[in-house]
Amino acid sequence: MTATPVFTARALLLDMDGTLVNSDAVVERVWRRWADRHGLDGDEVMKVVHGRQGYASMAVLLPGRPMEQNHADNARLLAEETADLDGVVAIPGAFEFLASLRGLPHALVTSADVALSTARMGAAGLELPDVRVTAESVGASKPDPEGFLKGAAELGIDPADCVVFEDSGAGISAGRAAGMRVVGVGPRAHWHRPDVVVPDLAGVRVEHVGDGELRLGFGAGPGHSARPAPEGEAP
């Protein structure tokens, strides 16, 4: 990388799990138990579930199963995840990043429902954005762009003027499908070719430069990249 990247935008749309909150420990516990119950390989299941609503992951993993069963199963898993907050922590830099967005247009766009998103953000000690698009708000899960388009609409900002922060392949695909630039956060994002990859939020800076315009800077250093990550499969 020869220069530190800079984006301009009018609004930011933020995923939660893997982007603001590290909930991997809970996700692993809950979904590996689910995999065992259904005779599936846990490692293969974990390649699918990040970023999607549970019912959508189940539809991929158990093709042909009636969708009503997936929705019922998903409700049980959401309850398990909401009750299990052990190991849920903030992504480095998340507190300062959210504090820098106070008074600026931004929204949470998550595949979690209201209960789960409230519980996890609280456990991580993070403030919930005023505008939130949760599982209850949409009819289609990421990688469908509906959630990000709804977030932009609620903020009154053109999708092309929004920047998405995401960690998962499904989320990055959803942001791209919405016509938005995507900042990938963490190691999962590296494999899905977002516009910029950062290891966490500690190096991200947001500045209001007037006339509704935001300037985003990404600190240089190990793990930061101004270029798309190389193609390949995650290890």
Describe the structure.
The protein is an alpha/beta fold and 235 residues long. 35% of the residues lie in helices and 19% in strands. It has helices spanning 24-37, 42-49, 54-61, 67-83, 94-100, 114-123, 146-155, 169-177; strands at 6-9, 11-14, 21-22, 89-90, 106-109, 131-133, 162-166, 181-185, 196-198, 204-210, 213-218. Strand 7 (162-166), helix 8 (169-177) and strand 8 (181-185) form a beta-alpha-beta unit. Helix 1 crosses helix 2, helix 3 (54-61) packs across helix 4 and helix 4 packs parallel to helix 6 (114-123). The longest helix has 17 residues, at 67-83. The chain is globular.
Strand content: 15-25%
Global structural class? alpha/beta
**Into which percent range does the helicity of residues fall?**
25-40%
Give the overall form.
Answer: globular
Question: N- to C-terminal separation?
Answer: 23 Å
- CA radius of gyration is 17 Å
Key phrases:
single chain; 235 residues; disordered C terminus
Could you give a quick summary of the protein structure above?
This protein is of the alpha/beta class. The chain has helices spanning 24-37, 42-49, 54-61, 67-83, 94-100, 114-123, 146-155, 169-177; strands at residues 6-9, 11-14, 21-22, 89-90, 106-109, 131-133, 162-166, 181-185, 196-198, 204-210, 213-218. The protein is globular.
